[in-house]
Specification:
The complex is a heterodimer of chains A (about 300) and B (about 200). By secondary structure, chain A is α+β, with helices and mostly antiparallel strands. Chain A has helices at about 1-5, 30-35, 135-155, 160-170, 215-225, 235-250, 275-304, and strands spanning about 85, 90-95, 95-100, 105, 110-115, 120-125, 125-130, 180-190, 195-200, 205-210, 210-215, 260-265, 270, 275. Chain B has about 200 residues and is α+β, with helices and mostly antiparallel strands. Chain B is built from 4 helices and 10 strands, in the order E-E-E-E-H-H-E-E-E-E-H-H-E-E. Classes of the chains: A alpha+beta (about 300), B alpha+beta (about 200).
């Protein structure tokens, strides 16, 4: 197609045909391929080694090639769990965008790290929250940051948020159907106003007013839907976001520890200091006991 | 096999790195000097992948040195290792890595990895087969977590080495895969100091 040729974007099949042609695969991670292709505009963002033998096809379950090996029972399971599970959210209001996330990385049943950064700034007015597999998100964020910066340097203007989301979605497309699990929310401010866009490795690309992703997202959505309106003040919006993450971490096993909050407005992003949700829990207990005491006092006054 | 690394930017400006070696009566070290005076990398998991990965890192360190005329900093090694691990996303190196070293300011830095390349800079981390047992202990002793009203005394080098020896002795008691010997590498601005301490041999 003409457009494909101009953009040099070809839908690369990740599964190789059998018997395999002798390809220059970067088996030893010496990155010689990348050094050669870095001169072109649209080189491979990251050379990813696709194992060339049939036993690895469970990782790459895309095209049914007519050379598919007959023995489907040969599955190679990964012997270790990857970090997964989170609560992240982003919403827009009159004062900009709020992006919030918890900080727990779980691998199977173990908390792999209680203090992970799930919100990463891309440039001064764009922040991305990550959810899904930790390694995938980290690397794809890095690739996205690099590509956006390269675009900025080459074309002397910044990519819009919708264009960045499109770019990310197209870069992830070759890995659709594979094990890559990336669900990123791009939250940012541009001259059209605040925007929140959700990009997923399954191919989804959605713009919205409220986006919450992760295993704790149903709980967060409940709190956000209850309290969100366009006219919120900055402090109200921040406390709403914090409350949403707090409730989600309470109910979801895979979210927890601290909450990271970013606020993006016309001047750029500001990171709030990381707050331990343990303190929030005790404050909540305090508030509840105070309410109970006051209610009891009122009841005794009314009855007397 | 198990290893742990602690780093702290305390007054001594040093960083420690320790590992336990040996599988099947052989002493096979799991830590290797990253070709620099300020970084040590430790790998636990599948030993074949550990060996290959260390060879690849060695080659990449040399390539960097020859093309950029300077040694890689700990942060740079960590970022590079992350991309190396991720390039094998669909057929991963089954290795849990921990990098310990000094950063540009001379403070201790510990970077811990998962098998596909996600990494994080920490103050302390335990990795390997006994990591689930030892990480809480490190959280408590070095991070002073889960305790109320305690004085946060900065960790000295002697105390840190003793703590790590204790940690590994406990690991050898309760984890079948940990034992035989312990090799401790203490990295300070003066260089890397290595000691070998025997552990339970069963």
């Amino acid at each position: 197609m003409a457009l494909e040729d101009i953009c040099c974007f070809k839908d690369k099949p990740t599964q190789q045909l059998f018997p395999f042609p002798a390809l220059e695969t970067d088996y030893h991670n010496l990155e010689l391929e990348r050094l050669k292709t870095s001169q072109t505009n649209w080189g491979d963002p990251q050379h990813i080694f696709i194992p060339p033998f049939p036993q690895a096809t469970p990782f790459i379950s895309r095209r049914t090639s007519r050379f598919r090996p007959p023995n489907h029972a040969l599955t190679v399971q990964r012997p270790f769990p990857l970090s997964h599970g989170t609560t992240t959210l982003g919403f827009i209001f009159q004062g900009g965008v709020i992006a919030a996330a918890d900080t727990r990385a779980s691998a199977g049943g173990l908390v792999a790290c209680p203090a992970v950064h799930k919100i990463t700034p891309i440039h001064s007015h764009l922040v991305v929250t990550s959810s899904g597999s930790g390694a995938d998100c980290m690397l794809w964020e890095r690739i996205l940051i690099r590509e956006i910066r390269l675009y900025e340097l080459r074309h002397k203007r910044r990519l819009s948020i919708r264009a960045s989301a499109k770019l990310l979605s197209f870069m992830l497309h070759p890995f659709k159907g594979t094990d890559v699990c990336v669900a990123l929310t791009l939250c940012g401010w541009e001259k059209e106003g605040p925007q929140v866009i959700y990009v997923c490795s399954d191919g989804a690309r959605l713009q919205g007013d409220i986006i919450s992703v992760g295993s704790g997202s149903p709980y967060a959505y409940g709190v956000l839907d209850g309290g969100l309106s366009w006219g919120l003040s900055k402090e109200e919006a921040i406390s709403l976001a914090r409350e949403a993450v707090f409730r989600a971490t309470h109910r979801d096993a895979y979210s927890g520890n601290n909450v990271d909050l970013f606020h993006i407005d016309a001047q750029g992003w500001i990171q709030r200091p990381r707050e331990d949700l343990k303190e929030e829990y005790y404050r909540e207990l305090e508030r509840r006991s105070k309410r109970r005491r006051e209610k009891k006092k009122r009841d005794t006054i009314e009855s007397s | 096999e198990m290893l742990s690394a602690q780093g702290f930017g305390g007054p001594g400006k040093m960083k420690e790195y320790h590992y336990a070696g040996a599988v099947e009566n052989r002493f096979s070290p799991y830590a290797f000097n990253g070709g620099t005076d300020t970084t040590v990398i430790g790998c636990s998991g599948f030993h074949g992948d550990c060996l290959t990965l260390t060879k690849i890192i060695d080659a990449r360190l040399k390539m960097y040195k020859h093309s950029n005329n300077k040694t890689m900093t700990s942060g740079a090694i960590a970022a590079m290792l992350s991309t190396i691990l991720y390039s094998r996303r669909f057929f991963p190196y089954y290795v849990y890595n921990i990098i310990g070293g000094l950063d540009e300011e001379g403070k201790g830095a510990v970077y811990s990895f998962d098998p596909v390349g996600s990494y994080q800079r920490d103050t302390y981390k335990a990795g390997g087969s006994a990591s689930a047992m030892l990480q809480p202990l490190l959280d408590n002793q070095i991070g002073f977590k889960n305790m109320e009203g305690v004085q946060h005394l900065p960790l000295t080098q002697e105390k840190a080495v003793q703590l790590v020896k204790d940690v590994f002795i406990s690991a050898a008691e309760r984890d079948v895969y940990t034992g035989d010997a312990l090799r401790v590498c203490v990295i300070t601005k003066d260089g890397i100091n290595e000691q070998t301490i025997p552990l339970r041999k069963d």
